[in-house]
């Protein structure tokens, strides 16, 4: 990539003044290279080293050792594989449920209903609150003693420890909170898509006697293709990388970890940023490259699916 | 991989779909819709209601009657939490991080976005691609930490701010918006002898205000809500932003749910008020920002 001020299009001054935009662009672009692109690419490099979190400590090249250890060595690797599978389960459940609920809410709220704006605003609200508040809110709701959900379960004679109990159950509750927190985004993207569908399509079809399900199947669903694709990809990629609610809701609890949390825990210690020698940053980098490949493979597969659909519906 | 298309989204956008609704929505489906929507509304309002009631109870009252209404309006927990949680410091920190980093990010980004959108460089297409590709690159977490650590900026305010000076999604929003501003403007300004810097900030900036507002909101909310980076980079609790402070408060007062609820509410209320006023920008910003997941 050669960066050069082109002579034809640039109008503001000549001679050395041509360099003004390039000069002014440097701070922003430089920061981007140094703080984002560089580190991103360097993750791959670090994954082949035994880097720690200690300033000035020697860093040695150890080849594929981190990957070997992460995927194949001993009991720990079995936990890592389990975390990988859990990441997939999390992603599949979150993607499908969030996609379905988001579509349902958008369909309902695309009708002319009283209080429509209120409902839309309400369902989007958790998105602005961030994981700390989302998580603490649900911790309160899920208190085993005296929490409102425990109380409701009590009406049916069910007792549960929720987040503090069986890992499987805690894991399911995190999925619930994840969807609760993010379905608003999916809904808004669907709504934006629905508002671009031309009215006359529905009118013409109604005259032909189509109704309800038929209208949805033959008009809404194909016409909604761009929004469907966006949501599908966003949900898959987002849910594969999501782990922050686990930090707030369950902490580093055995049997609930997903890959993203594993990276954090290995790289920066398990509970806090306290400065210890236990930081295995090379190893964490390898784990994050594994996650990256998972996102890449599934993202590309989803993208293929989406493109095929697009060709089918939009030609 | 093609970039996902982010439609501009606005909850109050004109209702293009209403005509068909009038014709085809029967009374029964309307009723059904309301039943479903109200059920969801309970799931979304319920947590707020529980927080509110719990925050007004004393601790013994909470243990005796966790779910009922509080005995009266009692704001002691708010006062306690405000003092115990060191809220003023944390809030000030969050405000500093969000405003300084966002200001620097927006100012530098406009100067990157404008020439890229105009194609003033031979490599400007490639540069834009570099921003799009970033959405799919591996996370920068670990090398970034090594960088900050070796710069000697670990556990410092400037080091923490340094982490928030870039945002590829924000850049893409700006570039796309600037493309919609007619080029003729550049020509006439240049003919009139307007300098480049002045042109960008005096002419272009006012014209791209909606995009700037969206990007500002997206970036500032991201910083305000960030929980992981302060956990990694800040160990001195004088530097903690409010999110980290809240989690620490939970660690210490974890069983004092009334105080914790009050703390959570105090953090939420400014956000909710902001949300009411800046809804349009917040929603389009955060919807675009969701690409990051």
General form of chain B = globular
Annotation field: number of helices of chain A: 12
Number of domains of chain B: 2
CATH class of chain A: Mainly Alpha
Query: Which architecture of chain A does the CATH hierarchy give at level 2?
Result: Orthogonal Bundle
Look at the structure and give the mean pLDDT of chain B: 86
Strand content of chain B: under 5%
The helix-and-strand class of chain B reads mainly alpha
SSE order of chain B, one letter for each helix or strand: HHHHHHHHHHHHHHHH
Number of strands of chain B: 0
- What is the name of the CATH architecture of the largest domain in chain B? Orthogonal Bundle
Q: Termini of chain A, distance in Å?
A: 34 Å
Q: What's the rounded overall pLDDT mean of chain A?
A: 89
Q: Taking Cα atoms only, what radius of gyration of chain B do you get, to the nearest Å?
A: 24 Å
Low-confidence stretches of chain A: 271-277
Describe the biggest sheet of chain B? none
Brief rundown of the structure:
The complex is a heterodimer of chains A (315) and B (293). Helices cover 70% and strands 0% of the residues of chain A.
Fold and architecture overview:
The complex is a heterodimer of chains A (315) and B (293). Chain A has helices at residues 20-46, 65-72, 74-109, 116-141, 148-155, 167-194, 199-207, 212-223, 225-241, 244-249, 259-268, 281-314. With 315 residues, chain A is mostly helical. Chain A has one domain (65-314): MetI-like (MetI-like fold). In chain A, helix 2 (65-72) crosses helix 3 (74-109), helix 3 packs parallel to helix 6 (167-194) and helix 6 (167-194) runs antiparallel to helix 9. In chain A, 70% of the residues lie in helices and 0% in strands. By secondary structure, chain B is an all-alpha fold. Chain B folds into 2 domains: 18-75, no CATH class; 86-253, MetI-like (MetI-like fold, Orthogonal Bundle), CATH 1.10.3720.10. Chain B contains 16 helices and no strands. Chain B has helices spanning 18-24, 27-55, 59-64, 76-84, 87-118, 124-133, 141-150, 157-162, 168-179, 184-191, 196-207, 209-225, 228-233, 242-253, 257-277, 279-289. In chain B, helix 2 (27-55) crosses helix 15 and helix 5 (87-118) runs antiparallel to helix 14. Mean pLDDT of chain B is 86; it is low at 1-8 and 13-24.
């Amino acid at each position: 990539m050669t960066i050069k001020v082109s002579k034809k299009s640039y109008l503001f001054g000549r001679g050395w003044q041509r360099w003004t935009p390039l000069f002014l662009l440097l701070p922003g672009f430089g920061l981007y290279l140094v703080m984002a692109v560089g580190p991103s690419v360097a993750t791959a490099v670090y994954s082949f080293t035994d880097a720690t979190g200690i300033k000035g400590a020697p860093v040695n090249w150890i080849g594929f050792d981190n990957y070997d250890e992460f995927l194949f060595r001993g009991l720990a690797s079995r936990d890592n594989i389990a975390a990988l599978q859990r990441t997939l389960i999390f992603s599949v459940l979150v993607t499908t449920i969030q996609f379905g609920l988001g579509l349902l809410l958008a369909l309902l709220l695309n009708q002319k209903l009283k209080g429509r704006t209120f409902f839309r605003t309400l369902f989007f609200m958790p998105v602005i609150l961030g994981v700390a508040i989302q998580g603490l809110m649900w911790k309160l709701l899920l208190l085993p003693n005296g929490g409102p959900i425990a109380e409701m379960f009590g009406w049916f004679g069910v007792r549960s420890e929720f987040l503090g109990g069986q890992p499987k159950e805690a894991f399911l509750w995190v999925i619930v909170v994840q969807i609760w927190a993010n379905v608003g985004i999916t809904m808004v993207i669907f709504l934006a898509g629905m508002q671009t569908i031309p009215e006359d399509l529905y009118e013409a079809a109604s005259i032909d006697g189509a109704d309800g399900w038929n209208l949805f199947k033959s008009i809404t669903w194909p016409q909604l293709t761009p929004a469907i694709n966006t949501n599908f990809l966003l949900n898959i990629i987002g849910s594969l990388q999501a782990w922050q609610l686990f930090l707030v809701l369950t902490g580093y609890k055995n049997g609930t970890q997903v890959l993203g949390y594993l990276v954090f825990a290995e790289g920066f210690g398990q509970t806090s940023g306290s400065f210890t020698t236990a930081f295995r940053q090379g190893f964490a980098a390898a784990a994050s490259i594994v996650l990256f490949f998972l996102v890449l493979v599934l993202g590309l597969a989803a993208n293929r699916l989406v493109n095929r659909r697009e060709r089918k519906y939009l030609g | 991989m093609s970039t996902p298309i982010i439609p501009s989204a606005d909850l109050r956008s004109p209702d293009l779909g209403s005509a068909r609704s009038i014709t085809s929505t029967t009374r029964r489906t309307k009723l059904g819709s309301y039943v479903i929507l109200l059920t969801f509304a309970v799931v979304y309002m319920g947590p707020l209601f529980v927080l509110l009631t719990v925050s007004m109870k004393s601790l013994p009252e909470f243990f005796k009657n966790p779910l009922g209404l509080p005995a009266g309006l009692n704001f002691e927990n708010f006062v306690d939490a405000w003092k115990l949680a060191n809220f003023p410091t944390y809030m000030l920190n969050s405000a500093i991080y969000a405003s300084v980093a966002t200001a620097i990010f927006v100012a530098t980004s406009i100067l990157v976005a404008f020439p890229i959108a105009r194609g003033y460089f031979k490599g400007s297409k490639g540069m834009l691609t570099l921003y799009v590709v970033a959405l799919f690159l591996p996370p920068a977490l670990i090398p970034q930490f090594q960088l900050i650590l070796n710069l000697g900026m670990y556990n410092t305010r400037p080091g923490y701010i340094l982490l928030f000076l870039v945002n590829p999604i924000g850049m893409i929003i700006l570039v796309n918006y600037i493309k919609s501003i007619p080029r003729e403007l550049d020509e006439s300004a240049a003919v009139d002898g307007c300098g480049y810097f002045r042109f960008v900030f005096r002419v272009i900036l006012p014209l791209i205000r909606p995009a700037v507002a969206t990007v500002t909101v997206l970036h500032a909310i991201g910083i305000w809500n960030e929980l992981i980076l302060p956990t990694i980079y800040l160990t001195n609790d004088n530097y903690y932003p409010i999110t980290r402070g809240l989690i620490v408060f939970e660690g210490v007062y974890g069983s004092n749910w009334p105080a914790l609820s009050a703390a959570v509410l105090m953090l939420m209320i400014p956000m909710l008020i902001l949300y009411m006023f800046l809804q349009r920008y917040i929603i389009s910003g955060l919807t675009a920002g969701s690409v990051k997941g």
